[in-house]
Amino acid sequence: MRLDVLLGLVGKSRREMKYLIKTGQVTIDGQRAASYHLNVDTGLQEIRVEQDLLRIGQETYFILNKPKGVVSACQDKEHQTVVDLLAPVDRKDRIYPVGRLDRDTEGLLLLTTNGPLGYQLLHPSYHVTKTYEVVVNGPLLADANDFFAQGVVFLDGKTCQPAQLEIIETGDEQSKARITIVEGKFHQVKKMFLAYGVKVTYLKRISFGPFHLDDALPVGHYRALTRQEIEWIKTYLG
Ligand code: URA
After folding, report:
1. What distance in angstroms lies between residue 154's CA and the mean position of ligand 1's atoms?
2. Tens of pLDDT along 46-84?
3. Can you tell me the distance from the alpha carbon of 3 to that of 127, in angstroms, rounded to the nearest whole number?
């Protein structure tokens, strides 16, 4: 696509285009665009106008560090949603969270406009791993690892696939652990621990598929995935 067509798509007039080019405010992969007659590709090049990244014709992928109290939905009458946390420019019509974290759960949540990819990431047949940090209100004894590894059965008879438990510390009043699951049943982690006999008092997702929450992303903040990270998802799903 020609650069002038692209700039037209984001509402720039010819006059504005000329001005932006002349003043170096249109960049392609970090270099000033010399003319708007150039052929460009937003899938292959990073094109910025007045610093803003153009994402025309491309899917959007964000990684968010969800705070407590925010719902994993696009709209909600009562509570702030994960989409409300995005800057207005990033709040696209079709952007939605990939799966859900409970309102009181924190941590890593992907948001995307790529419906099919989001669907694949959630589908049980892809066995996308999710790891959570958990605090519970009682002891996690030596039998706990086997209990989770054998596949927890809920009271209603639903069976979970084997989960991997790593006990960090255990005590009569409180224990800490990491748990890795490969499904996303409703309230799954909380129900699994209830089945073991303790209640979850804190839950944070620290990884999802190939992504890990890192300290560079404070609670309530998000960032776009890099092209390489988007490739990781595709490779991960095979
Ligand atoms: N399991 C839960 O119980 N809650 C979440 O938010 C995520 C997994």
Report:
1. 15
2. 889 888 887 666 788 999 999 999 999 999 999 999 999
3. 41
